[in-house]
Amino acid sequence: MSQTEAKLRVQHLLAAARAVRDETHPVGMKARQRLVYEVGLTPQGVELALGEYLECDPDPVCLERLVARAKPASACHVLLSANVCTAAHRAIAFALASSKHVLVRPSRRDPVVAELLIQQLQANDAFGACGSIERVDSIDPRPGEQLHLYGHDETLSHITSSLPAGIDLYAHGTGFGLALVGPAQDRPPLAASLAQDLVVFDGQGCLSPRVVLLGNATATEIEAFAAQLHEDLQRLGQAVPRATLSDEERASLRRAQSTFEALGGWLHGPHHAIGIDLEPERLHLLPALRSVVVTGGGADQLASYLGPHSHMITCVAGDNSPPCFGPLLKPLGRARHCALGDMQKPPFDGPVDLRQADDAERAQC
User: Fold this and answer.
1) Whole-prediction pTM
2) How far from chain centre, in Å, is Cα 224?
3) pLDDT, tens only, 85-136
4) Which of 148, 238, 255, 305 is the least crowded, having the fewest Cβ atoms under 10 Å away?
5) How many CB atoms lie within 10 A of CB 227?
6) How far is it, in rounded angstroms, from Cα 162 to Cα 329?
């Protein structure tokens, strides 16, 4: 399989995604209607995701990197998760870069974008001349074929435990984004950028910020940053409301509130929550419901605090130059790095989660 053929298949997918992004296109209108009524997202949240965060016109260099990262296979099976409504696009793109025969099992909770993209590709004779794609209800890879898994670690462990030998496996499990704010930075603008990163996808993506570390910050500085972030999230929540929470999700936030009221503080609005930890010793992650932990401290303290969760970090945003962040950055070498405000717009150069990428891939790309 040539990289030229692989790139052509991805380009056909990008054309299909442009129809989904376009609110005036019949496919785009169907996507918006289904995501609201079948998945339960708010119209504003759907429009933000599809209109601004569905990557359809990648930089040619990034597209070349995506194709170069893909390992050729006779067939590629894809199991998708439901946390981000646009995630199917990039996952399918990487699969098409790997093989001309792709089988996709969409999330049962959110199959919308995957189904629409697959339908468009199947109706495209030009795509049919260079590849095939099929929606399936179960995955059944054979030895020698590829399997791309996306989901929570527990789900992936259950699936991989019963796989036959010889499957070329790419598993993208539980992950989250980390925001770093240096001691010398002008913090209010950074809070506004962080709020935007958190609002997209309701904070449920594997790149979404779940923890904010303020380097060498005092309790007063931590509380001030959290208050500014709270104000920014209040404003954005009025424009882009969070999806309606289930009873279970509301209960999980109430439990988190009790924890953080003891640790330092709790700020919340109709569409977000912020836990304040003034004496960070052990990281307590909030539910991924447009919620984030804000804390701070010195170099060794923050490294110890984050350490047990370092393997889960997929994205590091903000200022990583101060010495106070040095000890915690070494284990995060495989995470994406970006500016605050850009966490949800990674280059279209491979899976959003690059933790599995080996050194050879990184050197090549």
Assistant:
1) 0.94
2) 28
3) 999 999 999 999 999 999 999 999 999 999 999 999 999 999 999 999 999 9
4) 255
5) 16
6) 35
Q: Which two tokens stand for residue 23?
A: 């609110």
Q: What are the backbone angles phi and psi of residue 342, rounded to the nearest 5°?
A: -115, 10
Q: Which DSSP helix (H) or strand (E) runs through 187?
A: helix 187-199
CATH superfamily membership of 176-338: Aldehyde Dehydrogenase; Chain A, domain 2 (3.40.309.10)
Among candidates 137, 101, 106, which has minimal Cα distance to 121?
Answer: 101
Q: Tell me: the pLDDT tens digits for 280-307?
A: 999 999 999 999 999 999 999 999 999 9
Look at the block and give the residue holding tokens 């052990």: 282
Instruction: Return the DSSP state at 342.
Output: -
Q: Distance (Å, rounded) from C-alpha 150 to C-alpha 200?
A: 19
Confidence of residue 358 (pLDDT cuts 50, 70, 90): low
Task: Let me know: does 287 contact 249? Beta carbons within 8 Å.
Answer: yes
Is 259 within 8 Å of 281 (Cβ atoms)? no
Q: According to CATH, where is 3.40.309.10 located in the chain?
A: 176-338
Token digits for 289?
A: 């419901």
